[in-house]
Amino acid sequence: MKVKPTKCTVRLRKAEFKKEWYVYVESYPVYEANEETPKRVREYLNRSVSSVVFDKTRSAKTDDKGNVSYKPKRDENGVIICKSDLNKETMLFADAIRRKLQKEYDEQILLGDNQQLKQKELLDEDFVSYSEKLLKKRHKNSSDAIRINWKRVIELLKLFSGGRVKFAQVDMKFSEDFRNFLLSVLCGGNKKGTISVNTSATYFSIFKAILKQAFIDGYFLSDLSGKIKGIADRESRREYFSEEELNILAKTPCDNDILKRASLFSALTGLRLSDIQRLKWKEIIEDNDKIELRRKPKE
Question: Which domains does the chain have, with CATH numbers?
């Protein structure tokens, strides 16, 4: 919607029982946030004048009794003309207030135009490239697992969008379509079928994190991440060996002794293979009858 510039004008209102006029500044049209209908704003200056010079050739209105009121005369600068020096000072004061308000409204329009231009430039930028830059900035020192997940999401974004997508194209529909796309992504490598729902949920939460940061950075006028429904995790089933099964495993021959011992160690401690490979003797602490690992496994 094209917004008309606001115009500020000094006006007078006749006092009901006195031969004087109250002075105010009227601004119109004034648009407030999230309102399409303009308002007329009046700011009274707590000043009145009594020696106004009226222009008898320009009628303002006629009341019920037939009395005609006229518009005040103004000088070449638009200042209302009065006879007394005191009233002249009052009108100069009113005009100074008017100019101040006019300047504020004009600056709002200029600022709004600049913001619209900047917003247009941002909307033309590539969402995928932004995601790659955000990964480098936010997760420079994060774990490999986190970085791998982010890279995978960016790869899927490229696959889904054809390699490039403008911010202007990223909306609720795009987000919902990408959500559905993640739920049907095929597994990589030699695995068959689609990725798990929990993996899809992880990927989509990363996508929402990118949307959130883009909103903070001014690419979106509203927070899309807060409007989009995430993918619910499914309770995963954790496989484990019973004591009887572990005893059978321990007695089962294996050509690779290191592999067998590592498997038993993993089953008894719950540590993943990657955690075991990074394990150092100094991280294992023996405390009375208990053995503790003084290192948090890498996520």
Answer: 7-123 (no CATH), 127-226 (1.10.150), 243-293 (no CATH)
